[in-house]
Amino acid sequence: MGEQHGKVRHEHVRVAVIGSGFGGLGAAVRLRREGITDFVVLERAGSVGGTWRDNSYPGCACDVPSHLYSFSFAPNPEWPRTFSGQRHIRAYLEHVTDVFGIRPHLRFHHEVTRMAWDAAGLRWEIETTAGSLTADVVVSATGPLSDPKIPDIPGLSSFPGKVFHSARWDHDYDLTGKRVAMVGTGASAIQIVPSIAPKAGRLTLFQRTPPWVLPRVDRAITPAERALHRALPVTAKLRRAVLWGIREVQVQAFTKHPDELGLVERLAKRHLARAVKDPALRARLTPDYRIGCKRILLSSDYYPALTRPNVDVVAGGLAEVRGSTLVAADGTEAEADAIIFGTGFHVTDLPIAERVVGADGRTLAEHWKDGMRALRGASAAGFPNWMTIIGPNTGLGNSSMILMIESQLNYLADYLRHLDALGGRVALDARPAAVDAWNRRVQERMRRTVWNTGGCTSWYLDASGRNTTIWPGTTTEFRRATRHVDLAEYEILRAPAPHTADRVEVGA
Q1: What is the pTM of this model?
Q2: Which listed residue, 354, 372, 404, 455, has the most CB atoms within 10 A of its CB?
Q3: CA gap 30, 409 in Å, rounded
Q4: Taking Cα atoms as reference points, which of 357, 384, 367, 355 lies closest to residue 138?
Q5: pLDDT tier at 177, thresholds 50, 70, 90
Q6: All domains in the chain, ordered by first residue
Q7: Distance, CA of 456 to CA of 452 (rounded, Å)
Q8: Which pLDDT value is given to residue 9?
Q9: pLDDT per residue as tens digits for the range 91-113
């Protein structure tokens, strides 16, 4: 830091990346591969990993096969299991950080508190908990599964016991012999329940909506397989390609022909019937919506855990807390020493959106008050030189998000090449008409998908019931859509003078 002409001079970088999960680290690697080294990665925590650092609950693992849930440019022949656990995925991200030389760019304990567009200087002014800086381009990679959501339960503040979210697991609190309440039945809960049921004195599961669950076909990857992948990397690529291809074919049932999911539904019911013999419990665990409407969960030990004598399933969400007594929506009461919330994250109301101030002085949250929307899932109108990774309608319901991240990194790289080719101090701002047209096409395709027609309420939908989360197509289609930046979809901003910015119309 220093002073120049009476003003504080802050660090300036070409690119500031926010977050160091898969999206942020992927962006950092891509920047270096593009020859760009003038960038920083701003991370609020003290290490890399994103959601795979924050989620360390018992049983935490990925429901996407290991060889598909990794970067194509950083294959890992040493995956120990077909579905990897949190510890190994986090170690993989640390490995990527080291191999690709990202550590010098990391700024730990730099939580972004505000970033605002400087129209005169055509740059972003960024404030963090550890100081300020400016950047020509911002890449927001905070991720949708980063800020836990705990519902507003009457009386919760008066609960005398322990309360925490699955993504903020308290490893110092011993659950042995305790009366534990698990709230929620999503992807985290079905991994937590089998892990803690044997040690809890009593475990009560508050289930608002039962999930569809299929067997988890997980196994150790043999030393021979790992040796083969090390000696012949093409075999690992082939394995990845097969896993990807199967999911590309499957997605048609989710996006165009939901009725074809009936067979999968029958398999899930058979899985439930094999594990749960009690007809009353089985009835409580049987969903009443089309499979795939919510994310299909994978577990071979969830249902058996629910049949344990010390486990109760309450077919109603937690409605009220009266001291140590928990009351469900159906009136059922249970005593608890600890409450664990597996209630998801702020996905359609991203907290980072409240901290990003655009060209008109309004926050991204204000722009998105009627629903998230971004051109090709990356650029928001009125927020020049700002791009998001895993933005609106880029989520997947049946495949690996790493595929979508890499497609967005292609778009980012081409975006930066365009800025270089245009020369001088320049910025690109997504045209509102282009954002609207893209969003219209996405929402039109969304109408017949299982996520919109399956008869459930999921975290894919925002407060108004619109699906602003999922991509209604194949990963191949998205890769084609994000291969290149179309300048006709952007306005070019230039700053020929210190305090002016001209808008140059492209294709006008």
Answers
A1: 0.94
A2: 372
A3: 7
A4: 384
A5: very high
A6: 2-147+346-504 (3.50.50.60), 156-217+244-341 (3.50.50.60)
A7: 8
A8: 53
A9: 999 999 999 999 999 999 999 99
With vertex at residue 100, the alpha carbon angle to CA 146 and CA 418, rounded to the nearest 5 degrees, is 80
Element (H, E) at 183: strand 179-183
Whether residue 506 is predicted with pLDDT greater than 70 in this model: the reply is no
- The answer to whether 435 touches 373, Cβ cutoff 8 Å, is yes
**Token pair for residue 300?**
């071979």
- Quick: pLDDT tens for 327-340: 999 999 999 999 99
The C-alpha atoms of residue 13 and residue 139 are separated, in whole angstroms, by 12
**Which contiguous run of DSSP H or E holds residue 411?**
helix 401-422
Q: Which residues contact 451 (CB under 8 A, 6 or more apart)?
A: 254, 292, 293, 397, 458, 460, 467, 470, 472
- Are the C-beta atoms of residues 247 and 399 closer than 8 Å to each other? yes
Calculate the dihedral angle through the C-alpha atoms of 26, 411, 241, 263, rounding to the nearest 10 degrees.
100
Tokens of 188: 């985290």
Q: Which of 253, 251, 269 is nearest to 261 (CA)?
A: 253
Q: How confident is the model at residue 4 (pLDDT cuts 50, 70, 90)?
A: very low
CB-based contact 342:186 (threshold 8 Å): yes
